[in-house]
Inverse folding.
């Protein structure tokens, strides 16, 4: 396969995934609408919506994505490096701080947009936190989503892009992950996290580090605040105290992330490309790949 063919096929695999996932969701919505027209009431809760969304993505969409991606030549790190507990902790803090910073950028951008348009846009994450049950959120966002997303956007993507350069693979993985979320509320922090996760995987060769970090991040950022909020409403003094500590954790992680970025980013080691292409040839192959532009068009549609 040429570089252009690899880039195009990878992008089209994500397009096929999105088409199947969204198609499945629309099919379920149509079925529920038809049942209601027949006088059969189906209680569509946020838990059911969340479950059906994940079902369409990972039970219906992922096999198609895997089938299209598997024939593309893949690279595997012969002897990966281990991460110490200290390094894992530092990376987790950097992930949390990057997520908070990216979230603030997304919220600010959407606030400006809403002010200019004179309308209000609902943050899908807020909608999820307010309406989904704690148990369903725990299962799907802490266990299912991190494992599947790391498989799709790190393992299967980075393995096929790393011959063109580690920096290139990290940037493409991060931007693709941000676009995949389909809204500006999540785009910036998903991009940042995607790049961090891609660097971790491409440097260690072990996807389990990514999955653990991703699970912990979703637990701390989504499930824990929900659990604390429910406990606060129940009158728990411990929950009130822990809730009061969350802003301190946010401020600490943001400051620590900025400090680590200034100190460590210039010193990161990068694997050099071995594809034989110059930067210009790689850029042309990427920009001339039809699948890349189809993927961008589909992502723009999801944002709109």
């Amino acid at each position: 396969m040429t570089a252009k063919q690899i880039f195009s096929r990878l992008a089209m695999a994500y397009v096929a995934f999105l088409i199947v996932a969204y198609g499945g969701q629309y099919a379920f919505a149509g079925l529920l609408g038809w049942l209601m027209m027949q006088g059969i009431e189906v209680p569509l809760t946020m838990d059911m919506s969340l479950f059906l969304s994940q079902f369409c993505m990972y039970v219906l969409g992922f096999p198609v994505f895997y089938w299209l991606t598997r024939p593309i030549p893949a690279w595997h790190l012969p002897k990966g490096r281990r991460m110490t507990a200290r390094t894992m902790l530092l990376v987790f803090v950097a992930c949390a701080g990057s997520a908070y910073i990216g979230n603030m950028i997304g919220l600010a951008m959407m606030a400006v947009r809403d002010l200019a348009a004179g309308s209000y846009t609902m943050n899908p994450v807020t909608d999820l936190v307010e309406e989904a049950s704690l148990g369903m959120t725990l299962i799907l966002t802490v266990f299912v989503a991190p494992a599947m997303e790391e498989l799709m956007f790190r393992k299967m993507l980075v393995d096929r892009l790393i011959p063109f350069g580690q920096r290139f693979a990290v940037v493409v993985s991060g931007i693709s992950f941000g676009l995949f979320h389909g809204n500006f509320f999540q785009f910036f922090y998903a991009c940042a996290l995607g790049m961090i996760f891609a660097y971790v995987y491409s440097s260690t060769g072990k996807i389990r580090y990514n999955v653990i970090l991703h699970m912990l991040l979703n637990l701390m950022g989504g499930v824990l605040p929900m659990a604390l909020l429910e406990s606060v409403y129940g009158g728990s003094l411990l929950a009130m105290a822990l809730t009061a500590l969350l802003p301190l954790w946010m401020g600490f992680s943001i400051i620590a992330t900025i400090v680590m970025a200034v100190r460590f980013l210039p010193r990161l080691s990068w694997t050099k490309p071995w594809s034989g292409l110059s930067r210009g040839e790689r850029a042309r192959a990427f920009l001339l790949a039809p699948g890349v532009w189809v993927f961008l068009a589909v992502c723009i549609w999801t944002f709109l």
In short: The mean pLDDT is 91.
